[in-house]
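W.,

You were right to be curious about this one. When I first looked at the sequence I had no strong expectations either way, so I just let the prediction run and decided to look at it fresh. Below is the sequence, 398 residues in total, followed by the output.
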Amino acid sequence: MNITGNPDVATAIHEYFESGHTYEVILDMLRTNHDVSFSMRTLKTHLKEAGLYRRRNYSPLPEVRHAIMTELRGPGQLFGYRTMWQVLKQKHKLRVKRDGVMRLLRQLNPQGIAMRTRRRFTRRTYHSMGPNYIWHVDGYDKLKPFGLALSGCIDGFSRRMMWLVCGATNNNPSVIALNYINCVKSLGVIPMRLRTDLGTENGTLAAIQCTLRHAHTDYYAGSSSHSYGSSTGNQRIESWWSFLRTGRSQFWMDLFGDLRDFGTFNGSHEHQCLLRFCFSSVLQKDLDECKDLWNKHRIRPSRLASCPGGIPDELYLLPHRYGSRDCGFAVEERELDVFPEARQATELCGDQNIEEYLQQAVQQNGLQQPQDWESATELYLLLKDIARFWTNYLNPNF
């Protein structure tokens, strides 16, 4: 078969060759995609006539060096020599030896070689101008199977936890907005920027933040004062949730998991309401303690952040000691009272009817509110027995 007389086939062979396919694969590609079949000898003859060689006619070294330096100015700085070799072949149409690329990378990008040798990620540096420059808000769902949802917020510069609240849900926009309003009321200041995930629960929060900032004249005033992003990009609060998991929440997950394994918790709405009624105050007390300890512990300086090390409370309240300034904006309580979320009442267990029933059961039986996890567990089991007795097994969930 005369390959030269068929320009489409000749072009296809050239493309397959430059892509690095073996001779056997090139022949298979031609049979499958172009309905053309010929022998290995014919293919090699055509490649020789076209000047296509695997180990001859290498590109000039200065040209290869320039192409590598061009790639190193962008994402190519992360490439190993095998990837760079492939990029040079396919993108820059250069013919070069793989070991030659390895030697050039050692000369031109020694830091990248060292990082890949240690198998370390190159992380971006976190920047913040000062306290209240940006707050990171997020929800914690590890306790949700047991009916308990956490909402938290951390200041990006000082790493101070602004709020850490346990409740029936962290998916209700009014609940998240109420946490924000309560925090702002206690501080008398709103942040320059607010960062949340792309969830509907953050819509009201974002609207309040932008409304309170609409009259300001800085770069992030108005709608620019809030930004959405992925959970993985919300690094400050996501990192703190990891700390909470290892230091606190794992205990509660194991405790509630034992109740489930022993058959005293089945995940129903009624059981979740009862568990919240008994454990919410105790868990919130533990979260307050965790928040207080965190805000008073010392954080070591990090080379991956422009923020200084120190104690979060000191970083937040005394930014001048660290060469920074408070970036927040003063707000009066009357400005916050216009939002209906500011007058919202929170329910202990998330269901008004069940909560009234449980409150009556506590009063009629002379029971005490729990002070620790042990008394909360006893109250949970006792109220569950009382509820089962009075419902006379009509509700199988109890």
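Here's what jumped out at me. The mean pLDDT is 85. And, maybe more interesting for your project: Residues 173 and 201 are 4 Å apart (CA to CA).

Coffee later to discuss?

I.
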